[in-house]
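Morning. Coffee machine broken again, so started the prediction first thing and wrote up yesterday's gels while waiting. Chain of 321 residues, entered below exactly as on the submission form.
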Amino acid sequence: MSAVPSTHSLQARRRLGDRFGDVFLHGLTAAAAAAAAALLLGIAWKIFDIAYPAISKFGFAFVTRQGWDAVHNKFGALDLIWGTALTSFFALVIAAPVSIAIGLFLSELAPRGARTVIASLVELLAAIPSVVLGLWGILVLGPFVGTHLEPWLHSHLGFIPLFDGSPQNAGILVAILVLTIMIVPITSSICRELFTGVPAELEEGALALGATRWEMVRGVVLPYTRSGVSAALILGLGRAIGEAIAVTQVSGAGSGIHWSLFATGDTLASRIAAQYQGASTNLQIASLVYLAAILLVISLLVNLAAQVIVRRFSYERTGGS
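Came back before lunch.
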């Protein structure tokens, strides 16, 4: 008959197992974090390594120079940076209120039976491949914008430089609308989850004190979730900055710096996607990868800005604790 293990031996075995589990968990999570950091550094190193010929030839003047002439090996990124900033900014300006409104409707106002259906339909937009959305932009959205929307904007708001120029089926405005459609599903889904996570006692307490539904949303829901909403919008901005295929299909591949949204344009990601496979010289390839390096830096700055914004809002909400 075997002896019953003592309590002391069982505790010793458990402590040994726990120590092994702690070491294994620590090593696994540390390796995953190190792999992510190494991957980021590896991508950055490879991009800057390939772009070095263009960096050494043009220097920082590449960022401030306009024009892209592959025949004479004269390249500049300023108009592409302008196109990226213009399309991404206005796409975010349009998508932000729409996304917040969708999130509020689904979390606060929609009937229970309709919430799941509408939320599923909104999230399905995120599943549409960008090339399909770009094709829809060429076949449907572009003709509508060029035939109806841009003429209306020009006739009513033509005195504003943004709406000056000749309406056409492809251009910056079409790219902005396509990017807006791509941003909305992501940001609205995150906003809905944030609004749903607001403690019910806070909302019910505001309503019990006599606040209207709008006052409750303005005074409780939005302040409670503003850091998360800001992060969601920055995430959408990052999606807009890095989008290539859909913008290539609808932007018109124009050049130059224009205030008019009716003009054709191009972005950093779009130029890389359109010309990399057909690049004819090593300097052109290096210049295109230089554009990728600029895009990488911009994306990192956007993410850093998002972290600063989130921390600032969190600091204010907790009273600086």
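Strands lie at 68-69, 74-75. Going to sketch it on the whiteboard this afternoon.
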